[in-house]
Design goal:
By secondary structure, the protein is an alpha+beta fold. The chain has one domain. 35% of the residues lie in helices and 16% in strands. The strands form four sheets. The protein has a two-stranded parallel ribbon. α1 packs antiparallel against α3. The longest helix has 28 residues.
């Protein structure tokens, strides 16, 4: 009995590593822009950059995290992302924002302590705001589809010696 070689042909566009990177950047930009829009709901608080402490104690520590004279930027103005690759393939998407963005998400901060994972109810002056997680969660299926298409195409090409049109 003779075996004949069957060649598999992939029709349509195959997503390669470069296309995956581009689509991941587009996805991350969309999520970042939605998160920036969410920060517009923060109507109370800082109207601009906030400077800690006084100029007389310049360079000395004000707290565990801040020095006197350190400038704390608005969240919306310092929200960015990075698409990271490992061995030429998109591996991770990271969103970066000022540290106080986490406190804003939990609804805690100056004089509003947190215990465990939740804020103490009697001290809450702010309400939690899911400003960063909400756009990520709403768009997660789109990112999963992009990754599934990339890895599915890659599997077909490697496993079945597929020919790409």
């Amino acid at each position: 009995m003779k075996y004949s070689r069957i060649e598999t042909e992939i029709e349509g566009k195959v997503i390669n590593a470069n296309e995956l990177y581009k689509q991941a950047q587009i996805w991350a930009a969309k999520v970042r822009n939605r998160a920036k829009i969410n920060t517009l709901a923060f109507t109370k608080g800082k109207s601009g950059k906030y400077t800690y402490g006084s100029k007389e104690k310049k360079g000395k520590r004000l707290s565990k995290w801040h020095k006197h004279g350190e400038v704390e930027p608005k969240i919306s103005q310092n929200l960015s992302f990075k698409v990271k690759e490992v061995a030429g393939v998109t591996e991770k998407i990271a969103f970066q924002f000022p540290r106080h963005g986490v406190f804003r998400a939990y609804g805690v901060g100056n004089g509003q302590p947190i215990t465990g994972v939740t804020a103490k109810k009697s001290f809450i002056k702010r309400s939690p705001n899911d400003w960063i997680d909400e756009p990520i969660n709403k768009n997660m299926n789109k990112l999963a589809d992009i990754a599934a298409e990339f890895y599915g195409d890659r599997l077909c090409v490697k496993t079945h010696n597929a020919i790409i049109n």
